[in-house]
Design goal:
It is built from five helices and three strands, in the order αβαβαβαα. It is mainly alpha-helical.
Length: 260
């Protein structure tokens, strides 16, 4: 039967010497492997973190743009809502005034009311009266040198149109020469009227200048008398428009408190 020999002393010493070296080698291999693995994992992790950061930055940019668009849309919507509300108010004011006419220059006396009634009989024969003394403007205004406009409500829009159309019948009548008849306008309509009047005056001036230059070229010499006549006509029309504008500014600087 074979026998197992015990290791020799030399072999034991070799084993004792080899084990620490082996342990050191294994430790180094494990450390290198772990370091390489950690380095790889760290790089992947950092790359993923960087990608997430970039996506977050992109999302923030998109969010900022969306918020800007929302603010813009909200602002535009608010402006539209405000404009619609103002338009509704304006249309409501116009509806309140749709059957009204205004007599300007009517004295604030009983005789003035009688004069207004006589005017209504001329421009609207079907008018039955009486005329309530409804004035446009502040009764406590500082400047009372001119009477406030008298507001008259017709029975229908058709009667109002008839009255305005028949205002030509007042022409040449001395008892009515200081009184004019107008539509009852809102502030916006007054401003539109002023703008249109200014535009008409500008076109008239331009046409007169063009006509004068054309005649000057055709005749070879200026025509002072003709030019003076043209400018005199323009001046009279401008004074008429200016008078109406002054009346608007004087009496209708604020919305009438009787019918808002």
């Amino acid at each position: 039967m074979p026998t197992i020999h015990s290791p020799t002393k030399k072999a034991q010493e070799d084993v004792v010497i080899t084990l620490p070296v082996l342990e050191q080698s294994i430790s180094k291999i494990v450390a290198d492997t772990m370091e390489a693995k950690f380095s790889t994992l760290s790089s992947d992790f950092l790359a993923k973190i960087s990608g997430i950061v970039d996506k977050c930055a992109l999302l923030e940019q998109r969010q900022d743009k969306i918020e800007e668009r929302i603010d813009t849309v909200a602002s535009d919507l608010q402006c539209e809502i405000t404009a619609v509300r103002e338009e509704i108010k304006e249309q409501s004011r116009r509806m309140h005034k749709i059957m009204n006419i205004v007599l300007m220059g009517v004295p604030e006396t009983c005789d003035g009311i009688k004069t207004a009634e006589n005017i209504m009989k001329v421009i609207l024969p079907s008018w039955k009266g009486p005329i309530p003394d409804v004035r446009v403007g502040d009764p406590n205004r500082p400047n009372k040198s001119h009477p406030r406009p008298l507001r008259i409500t017709c029975s229908s829009a058709q009667d109002k149109a008839t009255a305005l159309k028949n205002c030509i019948l007042l022409k040449g009548r001395d008892e009515f020469k200081t009184i004019s008849v107008r539509r009852d306008l809102t502030k916006q309509q007054q401003q539109e009227w002023k703008t249109q009047a200014a535009n008409r005056m500008s076109r008239m001036t331009t046409r007169s200048h063009t006509s004068s230059k054309r005649k000057l070229v055709e005749n070879g010499s200026p025509s002072p008398s003709n030019d003076d006549g043209i400018m005199d006509t323009i001046w009279r029309r401008w004074r008429k428009l200016t008078t109406h504008e002054e009346r608007f500014n004087q009496y209708w600087s604020s919305e009438c408190t009787l019918i808002q």
